[in-house]
Design a protein that fits this description.
The chain is an alpha+beta fold. Helices cover 36% and strands 29% of the residues. The protein is built from eleven helices and 13 strands. Strands 1, 2, 3, 4, 5, 6, 7, 8, 9, 10, 11, 12 and 13 form a 13-stranded mixed sheet that branches.
Length: 338
Amino acid sequence: MVQVDYHRDLKQVQSDGQLTAWLSESNQRAPFDRLVWFAGLTEHCGLTPLIAVAREGNDIAALPLQGEGGHLHALSNWYTFRYRPLASRPDGLLEALARDLAGKARRVTLCGLPEEDRSASRLEAAFRNTGWLVRREVCDSNHILPVDGRSYEQYLVSRPGKLRTTLKRKSGKVETRVLEHFDAEVWNAYESIYAESWKPEEGSPAFLRAFAEAEGRAGRLRLGIALAEGAPVAAQMWTVEHGTAWIHKLAHRETAKPLSPGSVLSAALFRHVIDVDRVDLVDFGTGDDPYKRDWMEVVRPRYRLDMFRAGSPRNWPTLGRVLLRAGAQYLAATAKRG
């Protein structure tokens, strides 16, 4: 017998021993899959959580959602590299969640789903099999580097010639440091650098700092700083765990761009995670920024699933637009073939 329940107050989740244990560091090997990550998004980013949970015996499946008003979304935002269901046994439990959610929502939209672990396909099947109309499309890309046992120097040889030349010419002009703990002075420098960089305004500085502090306490933080003539000009935040290095944030001062401090600091961090931490994978998150291709070797798609209850009148205008767009694409493809 499958039991389905929902949690909106994440502080009360701590009284649910099975769910708390399932969403802890002991079971989830990436920061984006843990209760503390969802609690941070709720506290600092203004998201309204709804954790949907299905259980059967010792098996459990959780779908972290957000939103109200009948349209639910993934409990994630721009800080989340990828979103996925968290199931000890996907078969059956995900269908139970999808079936029960029909009484909670008319529409569910999930973005950033990976397919390398079949998350996108499993959720798509679960919702289709329980009566939802499902639209699937690519929404983003994820750049990664499989290290494949190489040293940093072996990896560097495979980088584009322009990047290697830049590193050779600029490395002596910039001093780099890689810290494995949180440092308030370095973090303040990062925030100052970010404010003068090409990046858009930071979404939630409080969330990012709280995350960095927690990762520092856990020994997973890799905080990089680059200095030119003693002044901070670039900073980056990475984390490392279970053989993966995650590149969360990077920024450099625009005034220091001729020194290429961002590239020099990236090289220092790549050297550290490859030769010191000996990671198997480096993950550059989402986005198809051209500079990522200089460092990464594999691109993986990220998917959006849009699920609708066909019987809800509030869905009909959106479904009509979807059908018209699909029809136009079909006609265009047919004309092109003809």
